[in-house]
């Protein structure tokens, strides 16, 4: 089985999306206190961090979907190529 560049790109994009998602959730978990309430250094910090994290989560979700889509499309195309019967070329006619 050959590994194509589309499979490599799809896998890399998928992994980047999963890593972004992991780190955003980890940051959010580490901000929680014993009662489960998020603690920020200041109001300004909260005002900047929350929208930025939402944006990163949306980007991560898009990367995960795009990477998975690339892998599914490549798998489907590769499956179709394997199923098609190989056509034999006709011998060249010499004059």
Q: What do the pLDDT scores average to?
A: 88
What characteristic shape results from the CA principal axes?
Answer: rod-shaped
Strand count, sense and closure of the main sheet?
none
Termini separation: 41 Å
Number of strands: 0
Can you write the helix and strand succession as a string?
A: HH
Question: How many alpha or pi helices?
Answer: 2
Rg over C-alpha atoms, rounded to the nearest angstrom: 24 Å
| Whole-number total of structural domains | 1
Helix content: over 70%
Description of the molecule:
- 72% of the residues lie in helices and 0% in strands.
- It has 95 residues and is mostly helical.
- It has one domain.
- Helix 1 runs antiparallel to helix 2 (43-83).
- The radius of gyration is 24 Å and the shape is rod-shaped.
Which helices and strands appear, and what pairs or packs with what?
Blueprint (H helix, E strand, L loop, with lengths): L4 H27 L11 H41 L12
Helix pairs in contact: 1-2
């Amino acid at each position: 089985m050959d590994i194509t560049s589309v499979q490599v790109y799809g896998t890399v994009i998928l992994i980047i999306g999963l890593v972004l998602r992991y780190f955003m959730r980890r940051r959010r978990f580490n901000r929680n206190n014993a009662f489960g309430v998020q603690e920020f250094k200041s109001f300004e910090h909260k005002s900047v961090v929350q929208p930025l994290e939402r944006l990163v989560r949306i980007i991560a979700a898009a990367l995960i979907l795009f990477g998975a889509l690339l892998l599914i499309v490549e798998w489907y195309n590769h499956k179709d190529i394997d199923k098609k019967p190989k056509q034999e070329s006709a011998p060249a006619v010499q004059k």
